């Protein structure tokens, strides 16, 4: 491999709902808008897509809907993780058969596996498919943190190609690069820390904010890649209040509301998530205005 497989602004897509069901037409329009706005990739069925409340049939359908629009235009990294190894294998096999470019597989939540358990989980998935796999390391939601040592072992497997790092540990990308090498894709899962993450060896971001500010997020990464640091600073300053506002309450509540302000979806979530409070709505509106997204 020469260089990371993925880089830039990759949107962790919301899943629009209408009358309790996936709004397929709205979702496909949204994917096309992401392409038109310059996003460098998309992730269906991640945390932001409310994957824990999608049925298996819905999960597969959302991945297929995304691929119908985006395949061949920008990379599609399908969320396929589970705290059941067998279920993760099944979803990853489907993503491969459907034509995804890669799978994003979260560390098993609730089970609290050991580092050896994490290794065996990802090894089993990797051996079941030939699809490139990104490890999704998010201790705040899964209550386990994959160590750099375990990730280094997994990187020896041919189709473990990178990580979505949502640890918010800004020493981690430098340590991972030193241990595994520059070609191992490192995508941040924390919009607010993307600039220092890039500075420490990262390659991009799987972004919540890009759901509502895809052009600005792409601009930041493109400016970074051409070493235009003045533009990076300007865009980062414009987006920072929005990065913060979108996590005042549990994601994707705030970003679903933000997307509804732009007309991309109804402000609907599935229980146990509920719509954000009026106070949070006001903070989101102010941040979107600061970013130049609404008046």
Could you explain how this protein is built, in words?
This protein has helices at residues 24-36, 56-70, 85-98, 115-128, 139-142, 148-155, 172-180, 194-199, 214-225, 229-245, 253-261, 278-290; strands spanning 8-12, 17-18, 21-22, 41-43, 77-79, 102-106, 133-137, 160-165, 185-188, 204-207. It has twelve helices and ten strands. The strands form two sheets. The chain has an eight-stranded parallel beta sheet with strand order 4-1-10-9-8-7-6-5. A two-stranded antiparallel sheet has the order 2-3. It is of the alpha/beta class. The radius of gyration is 18 Å and the shape is globular.
Structural key phrases:
295 residues; two-stranded antiparallel sheet; TIM Barrel; 10 strands; 45% helix; alpha/beta
Characterize the largest beta sheet: strand count, sense, and whether it forms a barrel.
Answer: 8 strands, parallel
Quaternary organisation of the protein chains: single chain
Structural class: alpha/beta
The portion of residues assigned to helices is 40-55%
State the CATH class.
Alpha Beta
Mean pLDDT across residues: 97
Count of helical segments? 12
Count of structural domains: 1
- Report the count of strand segments: 10
List the strand order in the largest sheet.
4-1-10-9-8-7-6-5
What general form does the structure show? globular
- Which CATH architecture? Alpha-Beta Barrel
Which strand-content bin applies to the residues?
A: 5-15%
| Rounded radius of gyration (Å) | 18 Å
Contiguous runs where pLDDT drops below 50 for at least 5 residues: none
Order of helices and strands: EEEHEHEHEHEHHEHEHEHHHH
Say which CATH homologous superfamily is assigned.
Answer: Aldolase class I
